[in-house]
What we know:
The chain is an alpha/beta fold.
Amino acid sequence: MLKDSPAFSGFSVNDTQKAKQFYEEVLGVPVEESPMGLTLKLKTMDVFIYLKEDHTPASFTILNFPVNDIDQMFDGLRSKGVIFEKYDNMHQDEKGITRGRSANMGPDIAWFKDPAGNILSILQDT
């Protein structure tokens, strides 16, 4: 029934201007602003960001960014002030990257948060 619908995803933040600045200036993602919120203009889809006064950050990864070189992207984001998360039992290296590819256990992945506390990741599969 909905297979032809131009579906999109969305999530909330507590400050759209901080989110706009972070996604545009730190992550380099094009952002369109409208009276209803923000739209991330990603290569594969649009993602809607809306203001929610009583916003609670997602406790799971809401957006994954596949990259060609996770170490290069990690270093680049860190140089822009991004702080990467460390999780118990995720077998992260000294940087904070889980090296799944070398163990044949999924992608290499590192997690970080946007200014509203939502969890994002960069990951390298190949």
